[in-house]
From TrEMBL:
Residues 35-294 form the Trypanosome variant surface glycoprotein A-type N-terminal domain. Gene3D superfamilies: Variant Surface Glycoprotein, subunit A domain 1. GO terms for cellular component: plasma membrane; side of membrane. It comes from Trypanosoma brucei equiperdum. It is found in: Cell membrane. Transmembrane segments: none annotated. Its main location: membrane. Keywords: Cell membrane, Glycoprotein, GPI-anchor, Lipoprotein, Membrane. One of its GO terms (biological process) is symbiont-mediated evasion of host immune response. This is Procyclin-associated 2 (PAG2) protein. InterPro entries: Trypano_VSG_A_N_dom (IPR001812). It is a lipid-anchor; GPI-anchor.
Amino acid sequence: MVSLIILFRLTFAIANRVRTLMKVLVIVSFFVLTGSASADSGALSLSGAAEALCNASKRLKSVYAFVQAKTKYATEKVREFEDMVELVRLKIVRVRGNEGGNGNWTSCTGIAKFLKRVGSKVNRVKRRELKRLRYLGYSAVGAAGIAAGRLDEFVSVFQQPNNRNGVEFFSCAAGARGEAATKAELHDCFQGGKTAVDAAEFLSVEDVEEKKGSQAEGRANLEEAIRRHLKLSNNDPRYTGGESQGCQLVRGSSGGGYLGNASLTTNLLWGDGIFGVKKDGVGETAYIGDTRNETYSYDMMWEENPTTNVPTLRAAMDAYRAFEEQVSEYGDIYRSLTEEWTEKTIGRRADAMKILNGLGSLPIENVSALNSRTKQDWLSASQVKDADKDLLMTEIGLCGGLGRRSFFRRMFRKAWRKIFGGNWGKDD
């Protein structure tokens, strides 16, 4: 969990450095805008483009809560199954130990074969599947953080330039009544929500986790959600269809445009391509389309397929999808482990039945029930510790007539070889 938080904060730190550079552009824009506020160029609408960006960013930040919950659940399931195997193992050796370790298949060798098969699967889940699940979780959180940072950067640059108190009015993000949008109006972007002040910072992952974390579990596919958030109702990102707001950030041509008295040489992309400005446009017309197309039919373009054509969003979708697939695969493996203890599966193995039929207080149906999601607290940590100790002493007297003295002698030899090397004390 700590690693996930560090990773998410690191990605936002990168985005913040980019945002700092963009603030320089904003300051420059203030000087240019105040000198030519009469330019006929529009602004982003609050209920359309601005809110779309905030909603999408917030949804991306909720990936952290989703990954955290899934990873925690997977880890707990492995521990639960390990405890179940140990408890069943202990009960088996106790039963056979009371019989003096005599008999047929149900001696130490048979018991070991029965449990080793399940134990090896559990180890594989821990060594491979759980490790990969965590790795893909880190990747999903990191990619989502970078994508959210680019959207926040876009909002920051367009929300700041305005002249609310000046004689000549201008803004690049229009509020509900046409005035410059405040951070309180962009409440899905900034801390404080609808009471956010001008000094408010962007929502952090912790803020989003508290408000949206419960919805992350079992929520709609991320790509579907992002596409829905970034889809404009009228396919036009401008305030009131292009009413002049004097924003030079959406004007590519010279004479009061983004570069002042010079025109852009290429189309300008904002938010990694969510929004595009035509290199020689005057900021009056806008529609949806491919922002990375060299030729624009409108002065401004809103990306029609953001999760496909915007690199950071596409990377976030791919990483999230890979994590979801691993979660599904992990679930399949866990279910196969659980089936090892069902009556139907065990009933087909006569040798396994010989063991389980002698468990007394732990019949087959109860073994299966141990893994029920409603009974996750069936074995406490203290019981596990006592079980391990009891199991060791029981197996010493049970396995193949091996006495305690012989057992410790073998263990001493193994320790000697591990510390000093060589072949001294090699087991026969």
